[in-house]
Amino acid sequence: MKKAAFTLASILTAGLAFASDANRFVLQERAETGLGYPYDVSVASADLDNDGDLDLILASPPGVQLYKGTNSGYSNQGFIFSTSGENPDARVAVALADMDNDGREDVVLASPSGVRWLRNKGAMRFEDKGFVINAGNTYLVGVGLEVKDLNRDGRKDIIYAVTDRIEVYYQE
After folding, report:
1. Do residues 65 and 123 make contact, with C-beta atoms less than 8 angstroms apart?
2. Residue 165: beta bridge partners?
3. pLDDT by residue, tens only, the chain of 172 residues
4. Cα separation of 46 and 70, whole Å?
């Protein structure tokens, strides 16, 4: 992926959302992650197996967990990827996007070390395609991630942020 020129204001204003005081939310379900303190987590949802139910991906420093959605709730399918080589204090961010345009949502995982792609092979199986962005930073803790087609060429691009910078990468 190549770096792209951008204005931070254009990216931030494109992602703003507003809510009114009239909106109320009611807890429908709670699932224990088993992670406990002190991990920060990032979550994303999509129908990963095309069964009509939303599935959840939970990313944390120990790894990426999959929660299969069913008509009756969510079932923890365990870890689909381990981040054991990462700084245990580092934050992670997760996004779901069809990176290879095969019709299946893939898992994109960001950490201070870079951005990794877990390709959805179908049937809730994922293949580690390695780092698509190798930042090599193990000392930075904050991280952010957004995946979308920024330049409208039909391919997913990546906005990657760590503690000291924000970068935009276009897929070639």
Report:
1. no
2. 162
3. 544 444 333 333 344 444 445 677 877 777 777 766 566 789 999 999 999 999 999 998 888 999 999 988 889 999 999 877 666 667 889 999 999 999 999 999 998 888 999 999 999 999 999 999 988 776 666 789 999 999 999 999 999 988 788 899 999 8
4. 13
| pTM across the whole model | 0.80
